Amino acid sequence: MEKFRAFLKRKNIVISGKRYGIDALGAMAQGLFCSLLIGTILRTLGSQLGLPMFVDIGAYAMAVSGPAMAVAIGYALQAPPMVLFSLTAVGWAANAEGGAGGPLAVLLIAIIAAEVGKAVSKETKIDLLVTPAVTIITGVALAKLIAPPIGTAASAFGIIIDRATKLQPFWMGIAVSVLVGIALTLPISSAAICSVLQLTGLAGGAAVAGCCAQMVGFAVMSFRENRWGGLVSQGLGTSMLQMPNIIRNPKVWIPPIVTSAITGPIATCLFRLEMNGTPINSGMGTCGLCGQIGIWTGWLEPSAEAVAKGAVAITPSGFDWLGMILICFVIPAVLCPLLNRICGRIGWVKPGDLKLN
Fold it and tell me: Quick count: other Cβ atoms within 10 Å of Cβ 249?
């Protein structure tokens, strides 16, 4: 056992929840952002502005989402170059075979293939052949074997969430908004989770609401401590910056969570706000305004995942725009500071608790 542990250490193979559930998952979301998400945005802009070149560029970017995710995962696992480059084929196969569950298939299979590739890397005199062959064969074989069932399971679970939200928009609006919002602030990837679960439609709208409650809420209610830099870094960046403060005093998290529990059902019941863009947008909130771009692109050109659930293109009304603005920006910006003030008056939160280092 000691020899095995020494081998894993020498190969930099760290079997841990942080390495796979935080580092790899977060990197996968970045790979997805740099391919599928940005490609969707460019293609939509091209189609709306009559720019065929943007349409083509977007299509090329979207086509390589599988390899982009796999390489990002390999990078997070600190894979050596030969393994990292070989993961392009693994990502393509896993994403293609996984169908609706492509991102989840890529996550699981790329992790295994990368670690197996790292294990054999530079162990033979013909490393140039062995390392890429073992990495690709392992990954593609797993893609053929387990990616289709993963895709079926992920698709079924996403459909369950979608249908449950339609049947119980109030309670599911609360649940989805709160849980995805919490995931956004935790050091995990809410974007990747939404992509894996294929969250679109009303459930996607509730997810966007929860993410915005966290990002805009923390940004505005901590303005006294962090001023404009904090407003931008949290409001357009990530509320994850508040995690050290949450660990020191978990009660500072109460206002954004309560706000998400309010904006979620407002989105699902009152405005019937749907996010029918690429599922990753559901978990982005106001990060680069990706959540709002997803809602907008979903109105004009629903993603394939949303179309599969019955979404159709619409011409947004003033009521639609009002709902998006109120849910994503206005309500969190007003409600979170009020709730934070109440928490301060009863002694749960004190000045300086939200100061970013």
Answer: 14
pTM of the model: 0.74
Contacts of 76 (CB under 8 A, 6+ apart): 19, 23, 24, 26, 27, 28
For the chain, the structural domain boundaries read 2-155, 168-345
Query: If DSSP codes are grouped into helix, strand and coil, which group holds residue 309?
Result: coil
The pair phi, psi for residue 324, each rounded to 5°, is -65, -45
Q: Where are the alpha helices (DSSP H) in the chain?
A: 2-10, 17, 25-32, 38-49, 52-63, 65-76, 81-98, 102-120, 127-167, 169-185, 190-197, 201-221, 223-232, 243-248, 254-265, 290-300, 304-308, 318-325, 331-345
CA distance 322 to 324: 5
pLDDT of residue 228: 92
Displacement of CA 255 from its chain's centroid (Å) = 22
Query: Would you place residue 100 in the very low, low, confident or very high pLDDT band (cuts 50, 70, 90)?
Result: low
Nearest to 48 by CA among 267, 280, 316, 328: 316
In which band, very low, low, confident or very high, does the pLDDT at 136 lie, cut at 50, 70 and 90? very high
Which of 134-143, 188-197, 328-337 has the lowest average pLDDT? 188-197
